[in-house]
Every structure is written in C-alpha cells, then in structure tokens.
Specification:
This protein is mainly α. It has 5 helices and no strands. The chain is globular.
C-alpha cells in the first residue's frame, strides 16, 4: 500500500511552487515533494475563507453542501461543527486499510478536534493554537520535551503593532457631515 501525504498550505498561490513557479518564493522542500510526487494543478478554491476551504478539501463538497460557509469561530458562523462527518474523505481511506493522521491547524469546528472524527494525531479543535492544547502539553511533558518560540533571523522585536512607514493602509477619519 502506498503512502499518501496531503499538505494544505494557507495563503500560497498556485504559481509559488514547483515547475510553475513564477514568483521569487523559497520553497525548496515543497518543490522537492512536487518533483517526486503528485501536484494538482487544476484545484480551485470555492471560498476564500479558512473553514469553508478546509471543510471542502476534507470532504470533497462545496461549502453550500457541507454547511460551513464562514469561519467556524466567528460570531456570525453558519456552522460551528461539521454537520456530516461521514463525508470526510479519510473515512474511505481508513476502510481501505490506511492509517489516517492529522497534524496542524484544524479550524473545521470549535469543539471537536480531528481525533473526534477518527484521525490519529494531537491537533486541537478550533483555530489550532496547539500551544494551548492540553494534549500537546501532556505529550511534551511525558516525553521530556519543551516548546518555545524564538525570533527568526529576520524578526525585529517591537513593543508596538506594525504599521506601514508611509501610512499606507491606514484609515482616515471622514469629516463630519453637517
């Protein structure tokens, strides 16, 4: 039985990877995976939001079919959890004998996590801040590991939120109409 690895990457255009790369983005590991694997060059996003896109990738359904048309953790969410989990594609893979794991940002429900749907792994429910997940911290503790975020080589610590130097993107107050 062959191994399958599905990698979903946020905010990455089709022309940033592999042989079709047209922008100067450094993605050597993903490029190497594409060279030795399969890349879908006709995949389209039917919703520009995280939850509907993830639910569509995991079920094969359009957002109006799986019901998660907005992000699940917003006050105006159309659905807080996946309505028909039997539609998750990994169910077919499990029946075919595959072990199915999930690592990373779930964001296809706020209460249930991938493990509740039969995935292996410790991804938390909701937006996926794994550092706040008890299971993640228990795993680290039981294996003598620790976790911390270190600034990268291009990070510049600052005490105030980032603002463009030229003021671009800042809203100006409109004058009151009298």
């Amino acid at each position: 039985m062959k191994n399958l690895l599905f990698i979903g990457v946020d905010q990455l255009r089709w022309d940033c990877l592999g042989p079709r790369k047209t922008v100067p983005v450094k993605t050597p590991n993903l490029d190497r995976l594409i060279e030795n694997g399969v890349s879908f060059d006709r995949a389209y996003c039917t919703s520009p939001l995280c939850t509907p896109s993830r639910a569509s990738m995991l079920t094969g359904d359009y957002a109006f079919t799986h019901g998660m048309g907005t992000n699940c953790d917003m006050y105006h969410a159309l659905a807080r959890e996946l309505a028909r989990p039997e539609r998750l594609l990994h169910n077919d893979l499990r029946r075919a004998g595959y072990r199915c794991g999930f690592v990373g940002k779930w964001h296809v429900g706020v209460e249930k996590c991938p493990g509740d749907y039969g995935f292996e792994g410790g991804a938390p429910a909701g937006y996926g801040n794994i550092v706040k997940a008890k299971a993640f911290n228990d795993y680290l503790l039981s294996n003598g590991l620790s976790y911390r975020i270190e600034p990268g080589p291009t990070s510049t610590p600052t005490s105030r939120p980032w603002r463009p130097a030229d003021g671009a993107g800042l809203r100006r107050r409109r004058p009151a109409i009298t």
